[in-house]
Design a protein that fits this description.
The chain has 570 residues and is an alpha+beta fold. It contains 15 helices and 21 strands.
Length: 570
């Protein structure tokens, strides 16, 4: 009896996609009587440099793996699980259309086990995100023997999933649209946003070299689409979109990391994937390499003249985040699952100094279908107790920082539906959505009871807000009058905001050259770091602007590579 009904069948499933909206993946599966003969992805909307575009991406690898193993149980690509899941589900649905029982095709295929191996290189880069890739390219440009070891199956890290924005002053793109800007102006802005808590030497170093950094990325193949404001209230415009980007886009960061990945390979650089750092090799007071472990088993020991830690932050380490920041309990993050602070821990094990920041990059946003979220500035935002704590029209991370400092593990967007925002109008038209924490009520008292806050507190907050709106002057927080809409019913709504963390600010202490410092503030020989593994000195408690994290990671990845390979630093 034949196993399949021969033919070509198609299936569709949800993928990852852009702008936090899922894409559709369409897969065609060709069946003979006994075999899966071919799997082809007909269309998708995945993230470049994560879901597709690399030799190891799911779009490039999973179809062949399904055919090779005759199984839908092939391992997902680490770091691209959503795309992997979409491909497998689409293929499953396609085969199901033939009448075959797909349960018989789900034999789990184990990840490849590697033989234990030992190698030697000039420069070992641990982590293939924006900082690690930049270091790899810079070191290869000097002719160094470089190895990038990445815990996931694709490069890009958090940067690839971001909006793909970069920040710099005094650029040709600003001049082309008549914008005047300078490193001094950016320096003043970043120090102001940090409330004086950032390291002025590091901020100065970043501001003076940010434009050159963008030109270097452009030489790697990155393309700037346009320049835009960080927020309507912040001028001059100095944030640059990658191709396809716009104000609150996501996923375009893959264009930045993809360009560096391609340049690194063009220069002859080598990658090792699915291999996680276990510990550094520390001998005679110097870091001399690292021991890493493959996801499928097997140890890779790499001895190196110099080592760069670029394994990312720890936003996916829920235990650590909620221990350091209890008010973040229940937070949401979309960073890779491998971002658990591995490099920070490894550095601390060899005597590195760790800085615990009082803040993180946090934005309180709606995760419900109502889609009330970032920059819905016209409404009233209250903390978990029902109090107003910030000018809601402020830059989103100023709002997030104020709510975090109020020790709120959630917040609420209060409205009576009279704002000029389609998402609010749609939410009021559709009414409450069963199973979500969004609340509708006929009175403030009823709303407070459903929110679980003191009715007197919420009423006092709303009464004061209405008083200021009627006056046309926000005496408490300085919100522009045009965004002060009174909240006077007849219907009331409270949309639930969950804290969302993208960038963590704490990590290893480094000097201006990217060298990791010990507890006596002396460089640990042979050890460098960049990106979220060591973002100390760049932030206060507020994320100053889109592109800061990627730009700083690239800059100090390059600087570390220059130091490690004896290149002059700029």
């Amino acid at each position: 009896m034949s196993k399949f009904k021969p033919g070509v069948y198609t299936g569709v499933a949800r993928g990852n996609g852009y702008d936090s909206m899922p894409s559709k993946i369409t897969v065609a599966v060709t069946l003979s009587e006994e075999r899966i003969e071919n799997v082809e992805i007909l269309s998708h909307g995945e993230i470049r440099g994560v879901g597709y575009g690399l030799k190891t991406s799911p779009v490039e690898t999973l179809p062949g793996e399904i055919v090779k193993h005759q199984s839908l149980g092939v391992p997902y690509v680490i770091g691209a699980e959503r795309t992997s899941d979409g491909i497998i589900k689409a293929a499953t649905r396609a085969i199901a259309k033939s009448g075959a029982k797909t349960a018989a095709l789900t034999k789990k295929i184990p990840r490849e086990r590697h033989e234990d191996e030992e190698r030697f290189v000039d420069f070992l880069v641990l982590g293939g995100g924006a900082g690690g890739l930049a270091a790899g390219v810079q070191a290869r440009q000097a002719g160094a023997d470089v190895l990038i070891v990445e815990a996931a199956g694709v490069t890009g890290g958090s940067a690839a999933r971001s909006g793909g924005k970069l920040m710099a002053p005094g650029t040709k793109w600003q001049k082309a649209v008549g914008i005047y800007d300078s490193p001094d102006m950016l320096f003043d802005y970043m120090m102001e946003q940090s409330r004086g808590k950032a390291d002025p030497k590091k901020i100065r170093f970043f501001c003076d070299r940010a434009y050159e950094n963008l030109l270097w990325l452009e030489n790697c193949g990155w393309k700037c689409q346009d320049v835009e404001p960080i927020h309507e209230s912040i001028v001059p415009w100095r944030v640059y979109n990658s191709e396809g980007g716009h104000y609150m886009s996501a996923g375009q960061g893959g264009h930045i990391t993809y360009a560096m990945h391609e340049e690194y390979e063009r220069l002859g650089g080598e990658f090792v994937f699915n291999c996680s750092l276990k510990h550094l090799i520390f001998e005679d007071g110097k870091v001399k390499g690292a021991v890493c472990e493959y996801a499928g088993g097997g140890t890779l020991t790499v001895r190196a003249n110099n080592v760069l830690l670029a394994t990312g932050g720890f936003a996916s380490n829920r235990e650590k985040v909620e221990r350091l920041y209890p008010q973040m309990k229940g937070y949401f993050t979309d960073v890779p699952k491998t971002n658990v602070g591995t490099g920070i821990d490894a550095g601390v094990e060899v005597g590195a100094k760790e800085f615990v920041s009082p803040g993180v990059q946090v934005n309180y946003m709606s995760l419900t279908p109502a889609l009330i979220g970032i920059n819905e500035e016209a409404g009233l935002i209250v903390d978990a107790s029902g109090k107003r704590v910030v000018n809601e029209w402020s830059y989103q991370y100023v709002v997030g920082d104020a709510l975090m400092r109020s020790h709120s593990d959630h917040s609420w967007y209060i409205s009576c539906g009279n704002e000029i925002y389609k998402s609010v109008e749609r939410a009021f038209a559709n009414g409450p959505i069963p199973g979500t924490p969004d609340i509708f009520a006929d009175s403030i008292e009823e709303l407070a009871e459903k929110m679980g806050v003191d009715p007197a507190v919420l009423k006092a907050t709303i009464d004061r807000y209405n008083e200021l709106a009627d006056k046309g002057v926000d005496e408490d927080f300085g919100k522009p009058a045009k965004f002060m809409f009174p909240i006077k019913g007849p219907k009331y709504a409270a949309f639930y905001y969950t804290p969302c963390i993208t960038v963590t600010f704490g990590g290893l202490e480094t000097d201006l050259c990217g060298r990791v410092l010990d507890k006596d503030n002396k460089p640990i020989p042979g050890l460098f770091s960049t990106g979220e593994t060591s973002p100390t000195g760049i932030y206060g408690t507020i994320y100053p602007g889109c592109g800061t994290s990627i730009g700083a990671a690239v800059l100090w990845g390059r600087v570390a590579a220059m130091m490690a390979t004896n290149q002059p630093i700029f």
